[in-house]
Design brief:
By secondary structure, this protein is mainly alpha-helical. The protein is about 75% helix and about 0% strand. It has two domains: about 25-245, no CATH class; about 265-385 and about 390-485, no CATH class. Helix 1 packs antiparallel against helix 7 (about 145-160), helix 6 (about 125-145) crosses helix 9 (about 195-205) and helix 8 crosses helix 11 (about 240-265).
């Protein structure tokens, strides 16, 4: 390992130092009764099993869900903020009896911003949904300290910003730096469009963070938000975004492993940075541990997804497939029903069994990248090339071949289903679950590649697999995006079960507090 630059070591150690948080006096902490919290946590566990999401998205998903419900039921910012914070604490997303009561006031100010803009009604419903999503990100930032993550992303960006170029594809250097910034957040913190949207909103419209300046006359800000949303969408959907991600990912993985290596024994971090050979050994050990953690996390996710798919398929089978087939054909194909019932969970179990841990060559590459990341010379320069545009006969030829891939793949599957005596209804359900589950399994396997920094080899077998699987995955991606808002389980949980259940918990907590007061009167 090469010598570590002293200024980089100091910058990294500064980023890793914990924030100096003031201790909150016990009398001004937000407290939720333990009995109420147990019920709320149990409900969240059930809901998260039904609505699968990555672990790092669960808290923000809960913020968004609770916020949407509170905005319908309440119009007072303080009432909305109180209900939101207390529900998050009760559900275990925030610590109990640790946060200051002033957090409710901070939350209320941010909720009030949205309510004021929403009353003006400048923009479509999708625009206000976008604002609510960004509000959830803003609230999560004040609920959970992210100072360390921001400092580390800044460290990564500064190491990469002047090393990645795209003169032929993006002549504007500022646009290149924006894409590097976005790629750093996506690869290092797994930031989605909502998180990045809020980061860019603060940059493009800094007045948003100073509501006292415009809340008395918010029309101008409401109108500017329309243009800002369009500008943010263009930045996040840049055609070269994936290429920036591929270039940034190896260095983001290296920084992630380096962070965990230094935090494994924080007191020894300064000494470790002075001994490159020892740091290399620690990086190898932490990397192997991360491989194991990812494998376990993916398998737990596969189990949750299998449970969700099995329950979903059971409902579809007994609510739609069996009754309609019997109504139209006076019979039900046991073969088709069994295949449709077992295929989705079976595919997820199959995928979970074939999750492999990266080899020594990948660990060695991470060690090398850590060394380069901390070196005085820095990261080698990389150039992002423009996407090749095909026109004329080549465009028509490749588009036709791409269309034929869909025809051949789905045609062969249709022939097989016909041989198994599938009706058009059972075949449609088979196609639907095959595409959606295949896409979900593909994303699960991509998550398993979190720490892989070596590109795989191009093989003939991969070409054949892509020919068969790409149409199914594309269809699954489209279906997943199109029907994500039509999840019947989520509708039942959010609007039929959750609202009255949370009202019951609120009443229960008030009753328990009342009983405590009466008991104290006896003392």
């Amino acid at each position: 390992m090469v010598a570590i630059a002293r200024d980089l070591a100091e910058q990294l150690l500064s980023a890793l130092r914990p924030a100096n948080l003031q201790e909150v006096p016990e009398g001004s902490r937000i407290h939720v009764h333990a009995a109420v919290s147990r019920f709320a946590i149990l409900y969240e566990q059930i809901r998260n099993a039904v609505d699968y999401k990555d672990d790092h998205l669960l808290r923000r998903s809960a913020i968004k869900r609770i916020l949407n419900r509170q905005l319908i039921l309440e119009h007072d910012p303080t009432a909305i903020a109180t209900g939101l914070v207390r529900e998050l604490i009760g559900a275990g997303y925030l610590p109990n009896n640790e946060l200051p009561e002033s957090l409710i006031d901070d939350t209320a100010i941010r909720v009030k911003k949205y309510l004021i803009i929403a009353r003006i009604r400048v923009g479509s419903e999708s625009h206000f949904e976008w604002l609510r999503n960004l509000l959830a990100v803003e609230l999560e930032e004040i609920f959970v300290d992210a100072t360390r993550d921001k400092a580390l992303v800044t460290f990564l960006y500064e190491r990469l910003a002047d090393r990645i170029h795209a003169p032929a594809a993006i002549p504007n250097p500022q646009e290149v730096q924006l894409q590097v910034y976005i790629a750093c957040y996506r690869t290092f913190l797994k930031a989605d469009d909502d998180v990045l949207g809020f980061k860019l909103l603060r940059a493009y419209l800094p007045e948003w963070m100073r509501p006292q300046e415009w809340m008395d006359d918010p029309t101008r800000i409401a109108e500017r938000l329309i243009g800002v949303q369009h500008r943010i969408r263009q930045g996040l959907r840049h055609p070269l975004a994936l290429r920036f991600l591929r270039v940034v990912k190896p260095w983001a993985v290296a920084l992630s492993i380096l962070r965990d290596s230094l935090l494994d024994k924080p007191d020894e971090a300064p000494i470790l940075l002075e001994k490159p050979e020892t740091l290399t050994a620690v990086v190898a050990r932490i990397t192997k541990r991360k491989y194991t953690e990812v494998k376990g996390r993916i398998r737990r996710g596969a189990i949750r997804a299998t449970f969700y798919l099995f329950i979903t398929k059971m409902v579809v089978a007994f609510v739609m497939e069996v009754p309609l087939e019997y109504l139209w054909y006076q019979t039900v194909s046991i073969t088709a029903l069994t295949i449709n019932l077992l295929l989705p969970p079976g595919m997820m179990i199959f995928v979970s069994l074939f999750i492999h841990v990266p080899g020594k060559d990948n660990t060695q590459r991470i060690q090398e990248n850590v060394s380069v990341l901390l070196s005085e010379e820095g990261i080698p320069a990389r150039e992002i090339r423009p996407i090749q545009k095909r026109r004329g006969a080549a465009h028509v030829l490749f588009s036709t071949a791409y269309f034929l891939m869909f025809v051949v793949t789905f045609g062969l599957i249709g022939i097989l289903l016909d041989a198994l005596h599938f009706t058009w209804l059972s075949a449609s359900i088979f196609y639907f679950f095959l595409c959606v589950v295949s896409f979900f399994a593909f994303r699960l396997r991509q998550n398993a590649r979190e720490y892989i920094v070596i590109q795989g080899r191009d093989r003939l077998s991969n070409v054949f697999f892509d020919f068969i699987s790409l149409p199914i995955l594309r269809a699954g991606q489209w279906l997943s995006q199109s029907i994500s808002r039509l999840n019947v389980f989520m509708f039942i949980l959010d609007f039929i079960i959750e609202a009255p259940f949370k009202i019951f918990l609120g009443v229960l907590e008030e009753w328990l507090a009342f009983m405590k007061e009466k008991r104290e009167e006896l003392e």
